[in-house]
Amino acid sequence: MSDDTRNRVTVDIYGQPYTIVGAESASHIRQVASMVDEKMREISVKNPSLDTSKLAVLTAVNTIHDYLKIQEQLHQLQLELQKEKD
């Protein structure tokens, strides 16, 4: 992929600016950043003593946990659909 098809977007996550470069649309990149910011703020309210690094790791752990749960749900639905086809 050439550099001219990549979007460069500056976003704010937990009060810090980040420039994110990716093939997705600028609106998609902003949405992802907004969701990360929202999750970090949500966790921070529950754990106000966390420094930013620990908060970021906890946010990543929570996000991957959610991702794996959704992946398992998708797998179960695919199995159910396959059973219906058979």
Automatic annotation (TrEMBL):
Annotated GO CC locations: cell division site; cell septum; cytosol
InterPro entries reported for this sequence: Bac_CellDiv_Activator, Cell_div_ZapA-like, Cell_div_ZapA-like_sf
A Pfam entry, by short name: ZapA
Ranges that cross the membrane: none
Location relative to the cell: Cytoplasm
UniProt GO BP: division septum assembly; FtsZ-dependent cytokinesis; septin ring assembly
Domain of life the protein comes from: Bacteria
Entry keyword Aminoacyl-tRNA synthetase: no
Keywords noted in UniProt: Cell cycle, Cell division, Cytoplasm, Septation
N-terminal signal peptide: none
Primary role: Activator of cell division through the inhibition of FtsZ GTPase activity, therefore promoting FtsZ assembly into bundles of protofilaments necessary for the formation of the division Z ring. It is recruited early at mid-cell but it is not essential for cell division.
Assembly: Homodimer. Interacts with FtsZ.
PANTHER family: CELL DIVISION PROTEIN ZAPA
UniProt name for this protein: Cell division protein ZapA
Taxonomic source organism: Peribacillus asahii
